[in-house]
Specification:
By secondary structure, this protein is an alpha+beta fold. The protein is built from 7 helices and 10 strands. Strands 3-2-1-5-8 form a 5-stranded mixed beta sheet. β6 and β7 form a beta hairpin. The radius of gyration is 28 Å and the shape is elongated. The structure holds copper (II) ion. Copper (II) ion (CU) binds next to loops.
Length: 289
């Protein structure tokens, strides 16, 4: 019976390793290929850490299996070994993880800086936010600057963000961004804490009430298929912070579009928003009559 339990407990780590090895091939892995340059780098970090923890996992499971196997084969009158511990071992398994942790901490700094520290990103490209996204229970409200908003220097941007204008363009759950460009959006929350999560772009950022948080990214659509019906590349946007009963409903999309299509989209939005229900043609007709 002892041997059975020994084999039983050694069997499951092996199953875990086999499943992990199969996962990438079976598409049980990342939520699709990364479609942003920073996402590729984040995946690289993930894989590096995965390799390190896999080595540790295999090592500890072998040690665990060895102890079980020895215990299963103990003779009837054999006495158990009692030890007060080993200083050398304590030092080794304290120093080694510290070194590994320190290595990871230093190694990831560059990617983290690119992801979160604006000064490392191309300043000119992201000096103006293209949109403001406000998370609220349970939707994403999106605001683009209206056609009258003139961006000249930073003061105007602050002004735009602080003072919503009636001419600004508003949508819900549909964020359009230009593709292949570094874009900046400003994230806010209208009520509780939410999290802006675009799995395929590897972007996840909490929206915190009372603060405006900048997010910058670049959608390169490397593996994404063009969607003719929306004239762009569509990515799922979800909330990754349990924010209330309707948390599951906070599904939206980010649409990356080529420059011209993006401009057309904004023009179309403007047209729809300022349509007073009386078309220009019918005005003319009335005049003619
Ligand atoms: Cu939520």
């Amino acid at each position: 019976m002892k041997k059975f339990w020994c084999l039983f407990f050694m069997f499951w780590p092996i199953v875990a390793l086999v499943v992990c090895a199969m996962a990438p091939g079976m598409n049980w892995w990342f939520p699709g290929e990364s479609n942003s340059p920073i996402g590729v780098e984040i995946d690289g970090l993930f894989n590096l850490i995965l390799i390190i923890v896999t080595i540790v996992f295999i090592g500890t499971q072998i040690a665990f299996g060895y102890v079980l196997w020895k215990g299963a084969h103990i003779q009837k009158n054999e006495k158990a070994l009692y030890t007060h511990g080993s200083h050398n071992l304590e030092i080794i398994w304290t120093v080694l993880p510290c070194v590994v942790m320190l290595f990871i901490a230093l190694y990831q700094m560059e990617v983290w800086a690119k992801f979160r520290v604006q000064s490392t990103f191309d300043q000119d490209a992201v000096s103006q936010p293209i949109a403001e996204v406000t998370a609220r229970q349970f939707e994403w409200r999106i605001r683009y600057p209206g056609p009258d908003t003139k961006f000249e220097g930073k003061a105007d941007i602050t002004d735009w963000l602080k003072n919503p204008r009636p001419t600004d363009l508003y949508t819900v759950n549909d964020l359009h961004v230009p593709a292949g460009k570094n874009v900046l959006i400003h994230l806010r929350s209208g009520d509780v804490q939410h999290s802006f999560f675009v799995p395929e772009l590897r972007i996840k950022q909490d929206a915190v009430p009372g603060t405006v948080i900048p997010i910058w990214f670049n959608v390169d659509n490397k593996t994404k298929k063009y969607d003719e019906s929306i004239k762009g590349f569509s990515y799922e946007l979800v909330c990754a912070e349990l924010c209330g009963w309707g948390h599951y409903k906070m599904q939206a999309r980010v649409v990356a579009q080529l420059e011209d299509e993006y401009k057309n989209y904004l023009l179309q939005l403007q047209k729809e928003q300022f349509d007073d229900g009386v078309s220009a043609e019918s005005d003319d007709d009335e005049e003619e009559e």
